[in-house]
Specification:
The complex is a heterodimer. Chain A is 74% helix and 0% strand. Chain A has 16 helices and no strands. Chain B is an alpha/beta fold. Chain B folds into three domains: 233 residues, Rossmann fold; 177 residues, Rossmann fold; 69 residues, no CATH class. Chain B is built from 17 helices and 20 strands. The longest helix of chain B has 16 residues. Chain B starts with a strand and ends in a 5-residue tail after the last helix.
Chain lengths: 356, 504
C-alpha cells in the first residue's frame, strides 16, 4: 500500500500524458495506436530496443539521482549539466594525460576524476550558499555557462587533434576504455553501446538509498531539507550539510562522464549532452526523489528517446519531437498532482490523510 | 440563531463529527471546548462552509442550508478567524481588509472610504488599530484584531474564533475579552473554540463540550465549573492543580553571568542577565512574551551565533559560551523548544526518525564503532521507549509526526529530550496547544525529572503554569531580570506588575 501510494500519481501522469499525446498525434494526421505501438515496441524489443533504452537511461539515472539528493536537502541543483560537462572534460584529460598507466589503475583513477570534478564544481555554489546565502539556483545555472566555456576553450587550445574540424579532444588511452556489456555477457550483441556504466548506475541507486536513509549524514541532509530550524536544533550544522549535499549531487552528475567518455565516445566531445542535467530534474520529479523511482523514471525517459527515433522514421507526420511533447506532458501532470488528489480520495482509491 | 443539526463528517477512517447537535443563541458568547482532535474545529469549519458535511444541516435563523463554500456562509453574515492568520505582511491594514471585496469602481480603489469605516469599527469595538499601519509592523495580538476587523467589515453577525487566545499575552487576553463583550452588546454572536477552561468561565454565556467527535454536554456557564467541564472533556476526573513536594536543590548546574545578546538588527535582546539553576530545582521565567525569554533559551541551547553574545555561561563549572548545539546536547543539556513545529519536529518524518533528532550521532541511533550507519533496530527501540513512557498516541513509530495531535507531538518532543538523559532541561512553553489530560501528564513528568536531580529552567507564557511548577521564579522584562520571587509568597497580580515594568 505504501509503495502503491508512491507509484500511483506518476503512473496516472504517464497515462494522462499518453492520452493527450494521442490527441496531438491524431491532430497531426497519424494513427495514435500505430504510433504508440511503434514507440513501445521499438523501445522494448530484444536485444536492440532494451539495450539502447538502458544506454539512454544510464546518464539520466545519474543526473536524476543528483537532483534528487539536492532536493532532499532542500536545494535545487540545476547545474548538473555544468557538473557533468566539467567531469567529462576532466575524465578525458585523465585518460589522455595518464594514458601510460595500466587499465587497473587508470580506470579507477578516471572514475575518481569524474566524481571529483563534478563534486568540486557543485561544491562551489554550495559553499557560496552556506557562506553568503546566495541562491543555489542562480549560481548553479551560472556555473553551467562557465563549465561550457572552460571545457570548450581548453579543448580548442590544448587537447584537439591537429586539424580536427570538430570541437573534441584527442581520444583517451585504450587502457581507460570500459567494456560494453556485450563483451562481458554472451547473448548481448557487441553493437549495443550499453556498458559497465549502467551497472555503476544501478550501484549508484543503491548507494544513494543507503547514504540517505541508512547513514547519519543522510539523516542530517534530510533533516536539513525538511526543516533547517529543527536540524539546527538537533545539533546539525546546516551549512556543512548544504556543501555536502551539493558535493554528493555533483559527484553523481559527474558519473555521466564514465558512460560518455570511458564507455562510449572515448573522448570529450563538446555538446555531447542533450541536456541530461535538465532532464535529470524531470526524472527526479517523476521519481519522487527516491532512487527506485529515479531508476524507473530514467528507464521511461530512455525508452521514449529510443522509441522516438523509430516514430520519426516510420510515421508520416510525427517527428521525434513527440518525445519532448510526452516528456513535457508527463511533467505537467506530475506537477498537477494536487488536482487529482482530491478526486482520488473521493473515489476511495486513496485514503484521506486530513483530519483536524 | 445558528444551529448544527445532526452533522456528521468523516475523514477517511476517522469520524471527526458524529451526529452533532449544537445550538448557538443570537447575542451570546458561546464556547466550544474539547481536547485537541475532539472535532471542534471541524464542526465550525462546516458551519463556515469550509468543509461540506457528509450528513446533517446548518440552520441559520430558522432556514436550513448545506454550504459548499465559505462565500455562502459569509453572505449570511458568518465570519471566521482562523488560528493561523491570512494576512499579506507587506500591505496595510486597510488593503488587507478590503482584499477580495475591493471598494470603488473596477480600477480606482476607494481606500479612503474603507479606511474611515475601519477606523469607526476599530473604535466601536475597542480594537485600537490604525488602518494605515503595515501588517508586519504589528504585534501578533494586533494582527489578530485585524482578522477580527476583516470579519466585522464584511458585516459578520456570527463570528467563529478558533483558539484566539493561543497567541495572546495575558494582558492582551483581558483586552480581547473586553472586545468580545462589546460585540455581544451590539447583538453579535461569538463562537469561541478553545480548550482553556478559565477563559470559558471568564467570558462565555453558554458552553458546549465535545469529545471524540460527539457533543457530550451543553451547559450554561454560570451553572458549571472547571472540574465538571474538565471531566466532560477528558472523560475522567482530572487533577487541575500541580502536586509537588518541596525541592531539595543540590549544586549549581547552570550559572549565567552578565549574559548579553544583540540581535541581527542591532537591538539588545538580553542585558546583563545573571542567575543560576541548581540540580533538583525548577527555576521559572515569567514575562510577557517578547521580553527576551525566547532568546535566553536559544542562547543556552547553543543556537545563537557566539559573536552576538557577551558574558559567560557555565555548565557544571565549565565555560560553555559559544559551544555548538551539538556540544550542548553531548554535555546533557536537553531543550524542549517553544514552537515544536518550527524547531522541534520533522513533521514529514516518522516518529522513529523524530525520536533520534539531536542524538542521531551516537548510540543507539548509529552502530559502533564507526557511528555512521544508522541502527534501525536501535532507533525503533528508542522510539518505542519514548512512545511507551510518554503515552504517545497512536503508538505507531511508522506514522509521520504530522499525523499526531498537538499534545502527542509535544509528548514525543519531551520524551525524546528526557531520554538524553538531561542534567539540565531547558523547557519553553511545555503545554502550549496541549489538551488538559496531557498537561497534567507533562507537569507530573517535569516534577519527576526534578526529583531525580535534574536542573530545569522553565519558560511559560501561562503565569499559572510557572507559578505552579517553579521552585524559584525570575521575572524578565525588556531583556533584564526584573527580580526574583518565591512562588506562593506573592500574588499573580504582583508578578504581573513586575512583568510590565512596575515594582513588586
Amino acid at each position: 500500500m505504501k509503495y502503491f501510494r508512491q507509484l500511483i500519481f506518476p503512473l496516472v501522469a504517464i497515462i494522462a500524458a499518453f492520452l493527450v499525446g494521442a490527441i496531438v498525434i491524431f491532430a497531426i494526421g497519424d494513427d495514435p495506436i500505430y504510433t504508440y505501438r511503434l514507440l513501445i515496441g521499438s523501445a522494448f524489443s530484444w536485444p536492440d530496443g532494451i539495450g539502447y533504452t538502458l544506454f539512454y537511461a544510464t546518464p539520466l539515472i545519474f543526473t536524476g539521482l543528483a537532483v534528487a539528493v539536492s532536493l532532499r536537502c532542500g536545494l535545487l541543483n540545476i547545474g548538473a549539466e555544468g557538473q557533468l560537462t566539467m567531469a567529462a572534460f576532466a575524465t578525458a584529460w585523465t585518460g589522455i594525460t595518464f594514458g601510460n598507466l595500466p587499465a587497473w589503475i587508470l580506470i579507477p583513477l578516471a572514475c575518481v576524476t569524474a566524481v571529483g570534478a563534478g563534486a568540486l564544481w557543485a561544491a562551489i555554489p554550495g559553499i557560496l550558499k552556506a557562506r553568503f546565502g546566495s541562491h543555489e539556483v542562480i549560481n548553479t545555472i551560472m556555473m553551467n555557462f562557465i563549465a561550457a566555456g572552460v571545457a570548450s576553450a581548453l579543448t580548442q587550445s590544448y587537447f584537439k587533434e591537429q586539424g580536427d574540424p570538430i570541437l573534441q579532444t584527442r581520444p583517451i588511452s585504450a587502457a581507460a576504455h570500459i567494456p560494453r556489456l556485450g563483451q562481458l555477457l554472451s547473448g548481448i550483441p557487441l553493437r549495443i553501446p550499453t556498458n559497465v556504466a549502467f551497472v555503476l548506475a544501478l550501484a549508484a541507486c543503491v548507494f544513494v538509498y543507503f547514504f540517505l536513509w541508512r547513514t547519519k549524514w543522510g539523516y542530517e541532509i534530510r533533516a536539513t531539507g525538511q526543516n533547517p530550524k529543527a536540524a539546527e536544533y538537533g545539533g546539525v550544522s546546516v551549512r556543512k550539510q548544504i556543501v555536502l549535499a551539493m558535493a554528493v549531487s555533483g559527484g553523481l552528475a559527474g558519473m555521466v562522464a564514465v558512460n560518455e567518455v570511458l564507455g562510449y565516445r572515448y573522448r570529450y566531445y563538446q555538446g555531447f549532452s542533450p541536456q541530461y542535467g535538465f532532464t535529470g530534474i524531470a526524472v527526479a520529479l517523476l521519481g519522487r526523489n527516491h532512487p527506485a523511482g529515479v531508476l524507473l523514471a530514467a528507464m521511461f525517459f530512455g525508452a521514449l528517446t529510443r522509441g522516438g527515433l523509430f516514430v520519426d522514421i516510420f510515421t508520416e507526420n510525427v517527428s521525434k519531437d513527440l518525445v519532448l511533447v510526452l516528456q513535457a506532458l508527463v511533467i505537467l501532470f506530475v506537477a498537477a498532482e494536487a488536482l487529482f488528489r482530491e478526486q482520488f480520495i473521493k473515489w476511495r482509491i486513496l485514503k484521506g490523510v486530513k483530519a483536524s | 440563531m445558528l444551529e448544527l443539526r445532526n452533522i456528521s463528517k468523516r475523514f477517511g477512517n476517522v469520524l471527526a463529527n458524529d451526529r452533532l447537535n449544537i445550538t448557538v443563541r443570537t447575542g451570546t458568547i458561546h464556547a466550544i471546548v474539547g481536547e485537541n482532535g475532539a472535532g471542534k474545529s471541524t464542526a465550525m469549519r462546516i458551519a463556515y462552509g469550509f468543509y461540506a458535511a457528509d450528513e446533517g444541516e446548518v440552520v441559520v435563523d430558522g432556514k436550513s442550508y448545506t454550504f459548499t463554500t465559505p462565500h455562502q456562509a459569509i453572505a449570511l453574515g458568518i465570519g471566521m478567524v482562523h488560528q493561523h492568520f491570512m494576512l499579506v505582511e507587506s500591505m496595510t491594514v486597510t488593503e488587507n481588509i478590503v482584499l477580495g471585496a475591493e471598494p470603488g469602481s473596477f480600477a480606482a480603489l476607494d481606500l479612503a472610504h474603507a479606511a474611515n469605516r475601519i477606523r469607526a469599527l476599530s473604535h466601536d469595538f475597542h480594537l485600537d488599530i490604525d488602518p494605515d499601519a503595515i501588517i508586519e509592523d504589528l504585534s501578533v495580538g494586533q494582527q489578530q484584531r485585524v482578522e477580527l476587523l476583516k470579519a466585522l467589515y464584511r458585516d459578520a453577525r456570527i463570528l467563529i474564533l478558533d483558539e484566539p487566545t493561543a497567541v495572546l499575552t495575558p494582558a492582551e487576553v483581558v483586552e480581547f475579552f473586553r472586545t468580545l463583550r462589546s460585540m455581544r452588546e451590539t447583538g453579535k454572536t461569538v463562537i469561541l473554540i478553545t480548550h482553556k477552561l478559565d477563559e470559558v468561565l471568564a467570558v462565555s454565556d453558554e458552553v458546549t463540550v465535545m469529545r471524540d467527535g460527539r457533543v457530550v454536554g451543553q451547559r450554561t456557564t454560570k451553572e458549571t465549573n472547571a472540574a465538571e467541564l474538565a471531566r466532560l472533556m477528558v472523560g475522567r476526573d482530572v487533577l487541575l492543580r500541580v502536586e509537588k513536594a518541596a525541592a531539595h536543590p543540590g549544586t549549581p548546574v547552570l550559572r549565567v553571568t552578565n549574559l548579553g545578546m544583540t540581535a541581527a538588527d542591532g537591538t539588545r535582546r538580553l542585558v546583563s542577565v545573571s542567575f543560576e539553576v541548581r540540580a533538583g530545582e525548577i527555576v521559572g521565567i515569567a514575562g510577557v512574551e517578547g521580553n527576551g525569554q525566547t532568546e535566553l533559551i536559544e542562547v543556552l541551547a547553543g543556537l545563537v551565533d557566539p559573536s552576538r553574545l557577551s558574558g559567560e555561561v557555565e555548565f557544571e563549572g565549565r565555560n560553555i559560551t559559544g559551544c555548538t548545539a551539538r556540544q550542548h546536547k553531548e554535555l546533557g543539556i536537553a531543550h524542549v523548544p517553544e514552537d515544536r513545529h518550527r524547531r522541534g519536529l520533522l513533521l514529514d518524518s516518522d516518529l522513529s526518525e523524530n525520536s533520534i533528532l539531536g542524538v542521531h550521532f551516537r548510540e543507539p541511533a548509529v552502530s559502533p564503532p564507526a557511528l555512521v550507519i544508522l541502527d534501525e533496530a536501535g532507533i525503533r527501540r528508542r522510539a518505542q521507549h519514548v512512545i511507551r513512557d510518554f503515552d504517545v498516541r497512536p503508538p505507531n513509530p511508522d506514522l509521520p509526526a504530522r499525523a499526531l495531535s498537538g499534545g502527542n507531538q509535544q509528548k514525543l518532543v519531551i520524551g525524546r529530550e528526557f531520554g538524553l538523559p538531561p542534567k539540565l532541561l531547558l523547557v519553553s512553553q511545555p503545554t502550549r496547544g496541549v489538551d488538559i489530560g496531557a498537561i497534567e501528564f507533562i507537569h507530573r513528568k517535569l516534577i519527576g525529572l526534578r526529583d531525580g536531580g535534574c536542573a530545569i529552567l522553565l519558560v511559560s507564557a501561562e503565569l499559572e503554569e510557572v507559578t505552579a511548577l517553579a521552585d524559584r521564579l525570575l521575572v524578565i522584562y525588556h531583556g533584564k531580570i526584573a527580580g526574583e520571587v518565591e512562588p506562593g509568597r506573592v500574588t499573580n497580580a504582583e508578578i504581573g506588575l513586575m512583568m510590565t515594568g512596575g515594582r513588586a
